[in-house]
Amino acid sequence: MAEGKTAEGQCNEACEANERIQEQLKFSKIKVKAPKLTGEIDIPDLDPNSMLSVKPQLLTAKEMLEHLGYPAGGLVPNWKEVFLRKMDEILKKYRSVRLYMDICVKCGACVDKCHYYLGTGDPLNMPVARQELMRKVYRRYFTLPGKLFGSRFVNGSDLSEELLVMWYTYFYQCSECRRCSVFCPYGIDTAEITMAAREILNSVGIVQKYMHEIIFKAQTIGNNLGMQQNAIINALEFVQEELQEETGLEDIKIPIDVEGAEVLFVTPSADFFASPHIESLYGYAKVFHQAGISWTMSTHASEGGNFGMFAHNYEHMKKINKRIWEAARALKVRRVVGGECGHMWRVLSSFSNTMWGPFDYLDQKYMRPQHICEVTLDLLKRGALKIDKSANEEFIVTMHDSCQVARGMELGGVPNGQFDIPRDVIRGVCEKFVDMPAETIRERTFCCGAGQGLLGDDMMATRVKGAMPRMQAYHYAKRESGVNFVALICAICKAQLSKMFPEYGIAMEEVGGIHQLVGRAIVLGAKESV
């Protein structure tokens, strides 16, 4: 009887802990006002705990949690044991994370490099301070002095409900953009620490809603928006009809599931209908049509975006990526080309081969995926596209370098290709191009403020504050050079900035994709063979 009461008491204690955590992590809508645009990016006064109340919504849908392999009942009863077991697994599996735990000397080089710190003034949004949330647990439980003498001796942290709240708050105020790592003399990658922390939180039952709902849809349905096959076909047929009406050409197509096409084209599902995304889809179609390249999209691989990367979960990333290569084999294509999306392109080009390669069934000249900007620039250089730059005469264009492309990979197999190729495409279709200030572009680019699973409406306060550095840089370019259009190659950046521009008093129409500009400038006519 005594044992039964003890078990019952333990159960009650676990339930109470779960209820406390759920209450502390309850989402509350917070409105913030966009800072005034001055064209300057100033280091803010410290404003401790100013963002402590900004937390993303928790996922509670049991079907989704179970499918993703996470606890379905909230905080697990033995959460401390599970937490440390998962952290131990990550430290052993990813040696870089353990290295980052050991080598930071708190030099301060990263302090003012994070857009969230610059926008909020909250000291826990300094990259080094955010890292310390994990490093204190590491020192307490994974170093010999910490194990022997406890937290106080090593400036560590014991596991507590308060610590869980801090982790969930501030590791979801990091967009894993890696800007801080560019300035770190040791190359510490805060993004890897953030991803590891999120996976540890997931293991104990604290799972973010927005990102994991998308991962679930991508794995089970095939795209981030949860569009069924008929809806995809209807959406793309509508785009095709609009294109035909605009151009007056009945033979311009958005091909779907065409076996034997040369190119399988994958792109974010936002391109199917949402502005300013859909304008880039028009541009892609015009490029392929004018160049005479046979291409197809796939209802099976209807999504290029891969949110699995944001959660430090290789299996999630692999399952989503698998659809693309299943479609490539089934449709017997010779090339795979990716559209305008940062994290899509990073997973597709950097990780696909180790996941589902080798790709020996593809054309030997294209044994890796190509980015649409590579394809378009090559066609421009070879004269396969007829261009009328005056179609974009109204624009003075600048470019926002998306984080996942700028700091996560290369483009075109050439040094600095990720910076130069997109700009060369813009210059190829526009007369007037001006870069934003040098410290805000290329490898030093500022994040849009909503990457890595922070694009949901529940994170609007963080999004507005985090967008500040990019908005100030754009305002400077507008003031000094008359810039009136920012070109992008990332779906998340398009969604974020088209929302932020009005918040900062700028017209949403000043945001668009590079291939929106390409599509406007192409002169359609007799197609060349390429």
Number of strands: 7
Indicate the radius of gyration in whole angstroms.
24 Å
Structural class by helix and strand composition: mainly alpha
Task: Provide the spatial order of strands within the biggest beta sheet.
Answer: 2-1-3-4
Helical proportion, percent range: 40-55%
What is the count of helical runs? 23
Residue share in β-strands: under 5%
User: Could you state the oligomeric state of the chains shown?
Assistant: single chain
Global geometry: globular
Which residues form runs of ≥5 with pLDDT under 50? none
Element order: H for helix, E for strand = HHHHHHHHHHHHHEHEHEHEHEHHHHEHEH
Question: For the terminal residues, how far apart are their CA atoms?
Answer: 82 Å
Largest sheet: 4 strands, parallel
Quick structural overview:
This protein is mainly alpha-helical and 530 residues long.
Please give a structural write-up.
- The protein is mostly helical.
- The chain is built from 23 helices and 7 strands.
- The protein has helices at residues 2-24, 62-68, 79-93, 95-103, 115-120, 127-142, 144-149, 151-154, 161-170, 179-183, 190-203, 209-220, 229-247, 278-291, 314-330, 342-356, 372-381, 403-406, 417-429, 460-466, 468-481, 491-503, 514-521; strands at 263-266, 295-296, 335-338, 370-371, 397-399, 485-488, 511-513.
- The strands form 2 sheets. The chain has a 4-stranded parallel beta sheet with strand order 2-1-3-4. Strands 5-6-7 form a 3-stranded parallel beta sheet.
- The N and C termini lie far apart (82 Å).
- The mean pLDDT is 93.
